[in-house]
Amino acid sequence: MGAEEYVPDKADIDSLRKAVHDCRGCDLYKDATQAVFGEGPANASVLVIGEVPGDQEDRQGHPFVGPAGRLLDKALVEAGIDRAQVYVTNAVKHFKFKPAERGKRRIHQKPGRTEVVACRPWLVAELDTVRPDLVVFLGATAAQSLLGTTFKVTRQRGEVVTIPDRPERAVATVHPSSVLRSDDRETAYRDLVADLRAAASVLSGRQRTR
Q1: Sign of the dihedral through C-alpha 118, 123, 126, 128
Q2: Overall pTM surpassing 0.90 (yes/no)
Q3: 197, 172, 186: which is closest to 71 by C-alpha?
Q4: Tens digit of each residue's pLDDT (9 = 90 or more) over 23-70
Q5: What angle do CA 60, 107, 184 make, to 5 degrees?
Q6: Residue 171: beta bridge partners?
Q7: HEC readout, 132-166
Q8: How far is CA 150 from CA 140, 153, 171, 202, 203, in A?
Q9: Alpha carbon distance 123, 108 (integer Å)
Q10: Mapping DSSP to helix (H, G, I), strand (E, B) and coil, where does residue 88 land?
């Protein structure tokens, strides 16, 4: 299993976005409404990677359009990152969920390592095409997709790191959805903004890679 055979060579973002809908690299496509590819400027200076599309993203076909996406937009602006220069995507392109015991609600599930690895060729293709100055990982699943399973967001959040075998510098932080779930949302949001400000400092040349 894996998406590599479905990713067109030397394609632009529009071609990749079209091709992803034919991906059968893992089984998530069977239950999802559609694949949700990244969006933003093709030459964005910042590429933000989340975990997996949520319910609203799956229905609408666009990344970060739910409550977590709105919170992310607010935090990016507050951190001094130009939202118009940000490309947003997810490590996994299909919504993973389980049906609620009652009603029609779909309960988000964390993608497994096999699904993350299977979908990685799409993520690498996005990076190769956009060529951002900085990558921001939102949550452990996103960070470990390219930094390896030993990377711990809880221990290394806000640090500037390098991505193995790639030129981009990166900063990891929590996923905005965890802020929304936090018992102390104000503090969690403030910490998210602080991490994004560390990321912004890379763009301004004030922060060196650790």
Answers
A1: negative
A2: yes
A3: 186
A4: 999 999 999 999 999 999 999 999 999 999 999 999 999 999 999 999
A5: 95
A6: 136, 160
A7: CCEEEEECHHHHHHHHCCCCCHHHHCCCEEECCCC
A8: 10, 10, 15, 24, 26
A9: 21
A10: strand
Q: In whole angstroms, what is the distance from residue 98 CA to residue 106 CA?
A: 6
**Tokens for 182?**
């936090």
Label residue 32 left, alpha or beta by phi (over 0 means left) and psi (-120 to 50 means alpha).
Answer: beta
Inter-CA distances, 160 with 102, 153, 196, 198, Å: 44, 12, 11, 8
The strand pairing partners of 46, in sequence order, are 86, 134
Model pLDDT for residues 57-83, shown as the tens digit of each residue: 999 999 999 999 999 999 999 999 999
SS3 assignment, position 93: coil
Alpha-carbon distances of 42 from 12, 102, 133, 135, 148, rounded to whole Å: 8, 42, 13, 14, 26
